[in-house]
Amino acid sequence: MKEYHIHTFGAEKETAAALAALIADRLKANVKQSVPLNMAVSGGNTPKMLFELLAEKYTDKIPWKFLRLFWVDERCVPPTHKDSNFGMTYTSLLEHVDLPSDNLFRIQGENNPDTEVIRYADVLKNELPQENGFPVFDLMLLGIGNDGHTASIFPSDLSLFESDKTTALVPHPETGQLRITLTGKTICNAKEIAFFVTGAEKANILSEIIAQGQASKKYPASYVSDSSGVATFYLDGKAAGNIPNK
Ligand code: 6PG
Q1: pTM of the full predicted structure?
Q2: Which residues of the chain have pLDDT under 70?
């Protein structure tokens, strides 16, 4: 059994505020040790609210130059494309805060996917501490899709939790859109993992994942915990609606 820590808030904005405070707290702790915080973020809609909050209220509350930002996954499109995770992060956060460009390690979705999946694995090898043969992130922000996917590991790709590669190239199961994603062992090598999940449409799948029963085995998010076997969930009331004693 994994050790799940569940933080439930009323509205999604309160959940985002709690996560913003977590990021600020971790960054300030690292500043005290004069070491950067290596953080990987996901894409999709949920993180956008968090990024906008950070841009609105944390521009001068976070020592941004101590943050080194990586991506959990990226769609194989240019950064200006509407589907780009980097593009979403840039417009909602990065163009509003003083984060040096040298601290940004984006997956270059505009590149040839077959070469970019290798290039990014090399970036992770060169830019991050390594443990167990995999890069180590200090903090990883993950979402959960309506099918239980996380990063770009979909239910048909559970083998990516056995891969000895750091990154993988996968097609979206419905659209076929190519994506580059961290693999399961890279994700689970992180020191700390925070799932950010909101909305009633996630309530059923979330309750199955957190129950860790047979039903959860088809969901990639169920295979995720950090290097100490812990995963923390930051939920709004709607997403937590079916979790007993939440
Ligand atoms: C992506 C994300 C993906 C996301 C989930 C949840 O590239 O889409 O990395 O794993 O976290 O699909 O997305 P929402 O936050 O939009 O529900």
Answers
A1: 0.97
A2: 246
